[in-house]
Structures are given as structure tokens and as C-alpha cells.
């Protein structure tokens, strides 16, 4: 290869991902890699051998190809947005003509489709947490503590599983989220994701009970002492954390099954099948419900944003699931008295 214009689509993507890997979290790089893998495979099927062959018609045909496969509108939006960023990189290294990225069409998506409709409803979360707090046989269990921490802090899965015992400050009632990529627990927003988050006494009581009675003593492969530990004395993996959360949020934990299954024989109660329960929720759904709950409880947007490490714009667009009526009643009506004329 004598010039960047001679790059193949595959080599161009490889260079782009190598460059972005220093700026993005591992999970974001994985997402970019998957999206651009589809682009590379399509280019190879179409016999596009060098990036200099790309033009507006190329991008139009790729978008039509992916849309024709019946993928969801937000998925197509994300793929074309990632492709546009890749082409902007190619412009910068002079592998393609300036202005080519403008020819990548990123389709608009209705706001209702862009938002994540599934969440752990705040009222359901409160019922579950009350149950865990008032029943000795589950108090301080791993299911209890991950729900307490996730719903109370609104933190992401990666931030929670990356917590060490040293990051939890019981006496001062707060936890620290720290970016530690060198020992395989990065934060999504890297150093800018680092923060201290205050905890209520009752949340600390639950974590204290977990540490004292339910947490196995353990160290990970890097000599760190994780807060959340499996029965095999390892730091909980992302997949295991998801399974724990699915189990923790099943409504039959605190009441009757809304789907009329027999709790004693229901397959969904097993570790491997919990995600298939129609009412169980993933960590991201708990984060969405938590952010909505924070806002409904009167947390200012800027305080919520700092607490959960997301911009106000992202919270409004993707996480805050309150209806217009709920926003009026819970957030604006309490301020109505300020408008009285004496």
C-alpha cells in the first residue's frame, strides 16, 4: 500500500477502530466493530476493493440493503451514524475526498422509537426493595444488594460490577466509581465517569449486611477485592450480573405472579432461564427506571445527570420515561404555589 487511498475497506475499519480504542470504552468499541463488520462484509460482496471507490451511491445502496433486511429504525440509524463517523476519519487521513461523509445519510427515527420503553417501573422497584428490606431470609442477599445499589444510584452495569470493597465507604455513606481499564473494569465514559455517589443509611445497611453475612472473601486475578462476588469467589461477570438482576426483579419475589405461573415449578426461577420471565428486568431497564424515579422525586436535572453520569440531553431523550401527565403532577405541580399572588 503506497497511499491511504489504497486502503481496503477492511484495513480502513481496522485502522479506525485502533484509533478510536484509545477514546472509547471497550463496550463501545465492540459495538462499532460489529456495526462496521457488516459494512466491510457488504463492501467485499460488492467487490469494493479500495476506499477511494466509495461514493454517495455506495452508501445509498448499503443503507437500502440493510433496511431491506427488516432491521429496526434505531438500529439502522446507529449503523449509518457509525459509518458516517468512519468516513469522517477517512477524510481526515486523506483516504477519501473531503465532503464524502456528508453523503452518508443517517435516517431520522421518531423520538418514540429512539427512547427505551422498557424499564423497571419505580412503583415495582419500591415494592421489591420493601420486600427485601423486611424479610430476613433475603435481606442483604446478592439479589437485594444489587437492586438497592442499581436503583439508588442509577449506575451502569459496568460501573457496579467494577466496584471494589475499598470503593464502598460505610461510615461516610457513599461509593466511588473509578475507571480501572488496566485491571479490566473500565467505566463507559472513562475518567469523566469517575464520581462519588452518596447513599441513604438504609442502602448502606443492606450493603453492610451483604458484606458481613453473604459476600465470600475473594480477590480477582489482579489482587483486587471486588464488592460483588460469585459463589466461586470471583468478581461477578457482566453475564452473571445480568442473571442476578433478572432474578432480583422478578415480581413473584415480593408477590403473586402476574402471569399465573406456579412459583414452585416455574422454569423462569432458574439462573439460566430468568431472563425469559416476561416481567424480569435487565440492568439497563433498572437504570432507566431509576433515572425516571430520581426525576419524579424532584431531583434537579443537573444533579441527576451528575449522579448517573449522563448528559441532561441523553437523559431526556433516552431514559426519562415519565408521561406528560406524570411530569405535570409530580414535577411541576409542587411548584405551583410559588405563583400565588398574596
TrEMBL record:
SUPFAM superfamilies: DNA breaking-rejoining enzymes
PROSITE patterns on file: CB, TYR_RECOMBINASE
GO biological process assignments: DNA integration; DNA recombination
Tyr recombinase domain span: 118-332
Keyword list, A-Z: DNA recombination, DNA-binding
GO molecular function: DNA binding
Coiled coil (UniProt feature): none
Residue ranges occupied by any Core-binding (CB) domain in the UniProt entry: 7-91
Domain of life: Archaea
Protein name according to UniProt: Site-specific recombinase XerD
Protein's organism: Halogeometricum limi
